[in-house]
Amino acid sequence: MATSMNINEFLSDRSKLMKASEIRELLKWVTENVISFGGGMPDPSSFPAKEIMEVTKDVLTTKAEKALQYGTTGGVLELKEELTKFMDKVGIKVDGPENIIITVGSQEALDIVGRLFINPGDYVITESPTYLAALQALGYTAQG
């Protein structure tokens, strides 16, 4: 006979502060017939699928051993060097690629910024409406 265990007694105090993502809750309402302006669901016809396939094929053909391997947490040096060149072209001065951090998305970037500059109890002001993931990232940072 199997016994059940209450996992909640093993969870950390910090885990009690966690709640479902607002974006996950919004995405419950997205269907094929709905265009969502709030849930990070861009129009699929805007995706450059052909170009992504070409770039992917080129990368896997020429650099598969490196591309499929884990990289450094701050981002791939070649990408950071190219970003430095691009930013310089458009008038944004960066003192070298070592001063660029590559993130997996805006929410990770907001989380890093929050951890660096926001203390528990600090106020954060946003416009309304605002990016829901920002609220989640900044709220969680302030609590944890």
Describe this protein with a few key phrases.
single chain, 144 residues
Structural features, described:
The chain starts with 21 loop residues before the first helix and ends with a helix. The chain is 43% helix and 0% strand. It has helices at residues 22-27, 49-67, 77-89, 106-117, 132-143.
What is the average per-residue confidence, as pLDDT, rounded to a whole number?
A: 83
| Number of helices, where a helix is a run of at least 4 consecutive DSSP H or I residues | 5
Major sheet summary line: none
How widely separated are the two ends? 40 Å
**Residues in β-strands, percent:** under 5%
Global shape:
extended
Structural class: mainly alpha
Q: Could you tell me the radius of gyration in angstroms?
A: 21 Å
Helix content: 40-55%
Quick summary:
The chain has 144 residues and is mainly α. It has helices at residues 22-27, 49-67, 77-89, 106-117, 132-143. The chain has 5 helices and no strands.
List the helices and strands and how they pair.
Layout: H1 22-27, H2 49-67, H3 77-89, H4 106-117, H5 132-143
Helix pairs in contact: 4-5
